[in-house]
Every structure is written in structure tokens, then in C-alpha cells.
Amino acid sequence: DVKVTQSSRYLVKRTGEKVFLECVQDMDHENMFWYRQDPGLGLRLIYFSYDVKMKEKGDIPEGYSVSREKKERFSLILESASTNQTSMYLCASSFLSGHLIAKNIQYFGAGTRLSVL
Amino acid sequence: SQKIEQNSEALNIQEGKTATLTCNYTNYSPAYLQWYRQDPGRGPVFLLLIRENEKEKRKERLKVTFDTTLKQSLFHITASQPADSATYLCAYTGTASKLTFGTGTRLQVTL
Lengths: 117, 111
What we know:
Helix content of chain B: under 10%
Largest interface: A-B, 28 and 20 residues
Number of strands of chain A: 11
Number of domains of chain A: 1
Mean pLDDT of chain A: 92
Radius of gyration of chain B: 13 Å
CATH topology of chain B: Immunoglobulin-like
Radius of gyration of chain A: 14 Å
CATH architecture of chain A: Sandwich
Number of helices of chain B: 0
CATH superfamily of chain B: Immunoglobulins
Mean pLDDT of chain B: 91
Oligomer: heterodimer
CATH class of chain A: Mainly Beta
Strand content of chain B: over 45%
CATH superfamily of chain A: Immunoglobulins
Distance between the termini of chain A: 37 Å
Largest sheet of chain A: 7 strands, mixed
């Protein structure tokens, strides 16, 4: 079974702190994604990566950065956390587009609920 | 730009009945539509995928249809059970492996 593991289920941080959210997948997937999910707004893509050291902005990248030094690991960084970044953060992975079997099916981690006070 | 819309109102049905959830999209027909289930406080889990040229796909008690004329996909759960209570998300594949998700419809199955 595919496993996507996020380092923390719950996190409480102070405004202005630097925050790292870690995600590891064990399926050798090329693509990895970071979303945030807020009530009424659904899943919104922050950043994604289709290869090591590659990254692409999603729909709401402001205030975030990412790092992908190894294929299995994708980190989301909040350089200076703010209260409006309180949210549920979800990491996902998938095979590269065009993979005949995968058809871009995404596998999600359990999520990290981040509260910024 | 392409939008995907799901009914934001929760759907309440009685155990044993068939639940039907709707996913509408604007503009062009996506090559694939996917359906996911999400339980509270958890990440979405993939359920079914249907291609543009498929009318219907089944998996156990689940059935998905794709009507390109109506620009709509329907997701059915037959003989629904309280354990089916969750939020169901539809998604389409955009560019570069990205998925665009609807906001989801919460299903509540009562005894």
C-alpha cells in the first residue's frame, strides 16, 4: 500500500515563527503536492514538485516555500507564520502524468492541523 | 477557466437508500474525473476514476457516471450504510499532473 506520512498531526506555533511541515512517501512517486484545506474553500494547491529540486507554484504560494532534496521527501516552509495560515495542510503524491496505470491518482497523508497564535 | 462544482449542502439519507452526489464542471470535458472520500480530520482517499469516453464505472456499491452533454458526473452509493458518512470530493486532471478539486459534499447516512 502507498504510504504518505506527514510528520505531525497537530502543531501550534506563534506568529512570526518559522514552521517546517515534512512529508515522506514510499511509492517512488515523481510528483508531490502541498495543499491547504479550509471550510468552504476546499483543497487549494500551494506548491507541487515533479522531480527532485524542482518546484512549481500552485494557486496560493504566497507566504510559503518548499524544498525537495530527495525524491521521497517534500517539505513545506512557512518563513514567518501568520494567523491566516492556520489551516489543515495536506501532502499528496502521484506518478508522473502520462503513467498509464496511475492516471494522476493522488495519495494523501493524514494531514497536519496547524494553529498559529 | 475550468471550474468544478459540488453541492455544498449536506446530503442526509436513510440507511439502505441510494445516495446520489453531483459534480458539475464548466467549459471543456476533462479527460478523467476522480472521486475521493474524506473522513473528518483525515486526508482524502481515492475511490473511483472515470474517463471521458466511459459512461459508467462500478466498484462494489459505488457507481460513477460521466455525462459530457450535461457536463456532469454523478456518484451513487447503493444500499448506503452509516459507515458511508463522509465528505465526497470530485476532481479533474488539469495540466502537469495537477488535480482541481471541488469543495465536496458531506453525506450523512442515518439509521
